[in-house]
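A quick aside before the break. I want you to see a complete sequence-to-structure record at least once, exactly as it would be stored in a machine-readable document. Don't worry about memorizing anything.
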Amino acid sequence: MPDPMHFEAHADDYVSSRPPYPPELWATLRDRGLLRRGNRALDIGAGTGQATGPMLAAGLHVTAVEPGARLAALLAEACPAAEVIVGRAEDLELDRASFDLAVAATSIHWMDLDIVLPKIARVLRPTGRFLVWRNVFGDATVVTPFRERIARIVRDRQSPLRRGADAEDATVTAARLTAGGRFEVEHSSAYRWSVELDAGQVRALFSTFSDWSTAEVDQAAGAVRDLGGRVIEHYTSWLIVLKPVASGDAEPASVEASLRRGTASSA
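That is the input. The structure line, written in tokens, reads:
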């Protein structure tokens, strides 16, 4: 089973190699009025600040929660304006109705939702929103020689597949987030983007993946060298905007219907 603290051991690689979230995602949040200057945001599982930094730049006051002490130190160094809490989202004790936004950026799959969702619902103001998004490394609709090599490495591994591989699926994640009746999907978006990487960048990036062994990372970097020294990686990202369901509200629409109604796509 992958270790969620794997990232702590690769903190320097994490801060240097993890790509930022696509500009189109931030544009969606701005267009929906979710990045209002002066509002308070809670960033859970904040890593080294890939979401914290842009929110601060937009004028929000950010409380960032990160369980890894080394990651949290790098986050505090990169984002000195943020309040940084070293701890797990499951252990949060914050004032009721004290945040306008709660954000889980490529982190929600590590959390115990039975514990975390009630806490998020408690700290959000009635008009607040819970934003969940993630980068998915490898666009299944785009086949490249490098991705064929990556698929071969994964097929050959002896260990079980990662825990909860469907955490990369927006519909599955939305179903889990809305199952308890505390939230409903207000909007969802999907984005497609690409980045060019050399062998060293692939090595650093893949070393941050919790289910990749050192030997597999070496094979991935070797594949880049075999293919000329640089590769274009095609990735996807998705965003789910959830609003709190007030007591007595009508039964929310199905997850599938909500996603269809709110989905936008960016190339």
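Two observations worth writing down. The first strand starts at residue 40 and ends at 44. Residues 72 and 190 are 29 Å apart (CA to CA). We'll return to this after the break.
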